[in-house]
Inverse folding.
């Protein structure tokens, strides 16, 4: 694994952590941080595309989450969970109407993001050749 | 059962101690050794971020007690913060080792001056760090800044200084000149990330969209991998071409020297197949040299280069005919696409770059005419063991431009060193040791001339052109 690719996993883990922190603010203070929506949308776009045919142009909507390392990490984590259900949970954070609903969906999203962060850090700490990681 | 609060306290303290031990190294920097202002800025930033991280850690354990449902996730944050610091740790010692006595300061400033002539990059400056790898090309610290900024966000710390780039060089090349011309490529990575990546990415996407029409839409991992692979290869070519626009053919010669590519000049292709392989993160060397040749011809350097009698020039000359034999060594190219189609994508972008890059560096041709007029005189100075800060041409005293000096020095290295040996006492041009020693002196004189030239220029600017 090149050092650039390895660092990408770290940057991904830290970006996910940023989103997790925002979700924690939502849970603990019922405060919706201004950058949370954009981050969630980028993850949702990556999640929806995982395992599907994807147009190159659509990668733009994923911002910094459009890198291969991120797509790979998401697909690894999604394998263990139900993708449609995960999408619903993340959408729930943005669409919940009551504080209790928001809290519940944010907690579910946090679990998913913790798994992403952990997997990205695993790749950062255990560099493997790209070929081994790909499929 | 282990007490959760106690464990978090323990983990926070351990991380606190780790960060403290890292930033203590920055605090040990005093008057000696001397660092460049940009390196000092980098070290100060690491120290500041470390202090901010420590403040964050002091209150972290109590923050985990606010809500039991979020406590476990919060605790995981320590892992990411630790990894962020481990990443910085890798670069800190390397930056501390690169004080001004251990980096080719005059060459670095000369290249930086060139970059600062570009309006969008006029404030860009560089921190140099040492690496134990004898390869400039595998030290891309591009994501270090990104990771440092993400870490800063998490601990509510300060952002990385604007326009401060990190570049790596092998620790053994501190006094060198020839191989250090490769630093122009490393600086190109920073320039690319700061200014040009958006335009280049748009072009890559355009090429991949054309590919989609041909082979259909790819699956998610395949398309992200294809885009990233092309981005890696393209960035390398961009940085090569950018380096040539900054310092001319010396960059190509330095790359040929580093890679030992002179074998290409007179070996059957099968004997030197390592130069034909596209890898995960780098295009094949022969493809790189071909793009160099295209640019040298476009800029007008090539007629001057052809006059140099050296196998280094032959490598570039044969590169065009040999690129048909390149291949992709990584099997991560999507099966639906195939290597041949993927290479076509690469070449479309590479040819586009040969036009795009010189448009971004409008002064890329400026040194050619001066080189044509001054390189003979500079080489004669080197032959006489004189630092060519000033040369006499047509009865006039001339202070050569750094880019002219860099290329004349490389020309002399390629074809003039035996003449320098002849001028030395008991010089033996068949001795490897004598040749190595002569090249070392040449490097020293070249760096001195570049330093003088910069001083003369600055004095000229200060005193209205009278130096």
């Amino acid at each position: 694994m090149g050092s650039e690719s390895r660092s990408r996993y770290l940057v991904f883990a830290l970006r996910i952590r940023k989103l997790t922190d925002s979700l924690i603010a939502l849970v603990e203070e019922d405060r919706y941080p201004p950058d949370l929506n954009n981050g969630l949308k980028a993850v949702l776009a990556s999640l929806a595309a995982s395992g599907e045919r994807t147009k190159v142009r659509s990668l733009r909507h994923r911002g910094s989450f459009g890198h291969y390392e991120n797509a790979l990490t998401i697909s690894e984590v999604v394998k263990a969970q139900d993708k449609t259900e995960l999408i619903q949970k993340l959408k729930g954070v943005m669409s919940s109407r009551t504080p209790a609903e928001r809290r519940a969906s944010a907690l579910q999203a946090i679990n998913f993001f913790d798994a992403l962060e952990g997997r990205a850090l695993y790749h950062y700490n255990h560099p493997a050749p790209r070929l081994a990681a790909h499929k | 059962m282990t007490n959760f609060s106690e464990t978090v306290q323990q983990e926070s303290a351990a991380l606190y101690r780790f960060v403290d031990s890292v930033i203590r190294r920055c605090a040990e920097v005093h008057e000696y050794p001397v660092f460049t202002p940009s390196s000092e800025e980098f070290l100060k930033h690491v120290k500041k971020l470390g202090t901010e991280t420590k403040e964050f850690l002091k209150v972290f354990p109590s923050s985990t007690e606010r809500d039991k449902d979020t406590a476990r996730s919060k605790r995981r944050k320590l892992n990411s913060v630790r990894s962020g610091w481990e990443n910085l740790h890798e670069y800190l010692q390397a930056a501390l080792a690169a004080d001004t006595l251990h980096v080719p300061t005059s060459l670095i400033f000369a290249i930086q001056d060139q970059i600062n002539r570009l309006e969008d990059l006029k404030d860009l400056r560089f921190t140099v760090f040492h690496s134990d790898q004898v390869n400039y090309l595998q030290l891309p610290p591009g994501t270090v800044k990104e990771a440092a900024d993400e870490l800063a966000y998490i601990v509510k710390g300060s952002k990385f200084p604007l326009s401060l780039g990190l570049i790596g060089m092998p620790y053994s090349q501190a006094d060198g000149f020839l191989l250090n011309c490769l630093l122009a490529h490393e600086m190109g990575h920073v320039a690319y990330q700061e200014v040009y990546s958006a335009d280049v990415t748009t072009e890559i996407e355009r090429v991949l969209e054309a590919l989609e029409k041909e082979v259909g839409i790819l699956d998610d991992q395949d398309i992200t991998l294809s885009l990233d692979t092309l981005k890696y290869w393209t960035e390398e070519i961009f940085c090569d071409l950018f380096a040539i626009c900054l310092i001319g053919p010396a960059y190509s010669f330095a790359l040929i020297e580093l890679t030992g590519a002179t074998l290409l000049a007179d070996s059957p292709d099968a004997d030197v197949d390592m130069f034909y392989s596209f890898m995960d993160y780098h295009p094949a060397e022969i493809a790189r040299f071909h793009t160099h040749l295209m640019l040298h011809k476009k800029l007008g350097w090539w007629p001057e280069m052809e006059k140099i009698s050296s196998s280094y020039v032959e490598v570039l000359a044969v590169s065009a005919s040999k690129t048909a034999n390149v291949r992709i060594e990584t099997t991560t190219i999507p099966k639906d696409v195939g290597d041949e189609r993927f290479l076509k994508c690469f070449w479309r972008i590479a040819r586009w770059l040969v036009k795009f890059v010189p448009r971004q560096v409008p002064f890329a041709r400026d040194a050619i005419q001066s080189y044509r007029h001054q390189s003979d005189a500079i080489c004669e100075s080197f032959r006489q063991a004189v630092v060519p800060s000033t040369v006499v041409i047509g009865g006039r005293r001339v202070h050569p431009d750094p880019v002219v000096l860099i290329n004349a020095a490389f020309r002399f290295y390629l074809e003039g060193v035996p003449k320098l040996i002849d001028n030395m006492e008991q010089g033996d041009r068949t001795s490897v040791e004598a040749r190595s020693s002569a090249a070392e002196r040449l490097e020293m004189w070249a760096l001195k001339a570049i330093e003088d030239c910069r001083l003369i220029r600055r004095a000229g600017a200060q005193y209205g052109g009278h130096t």
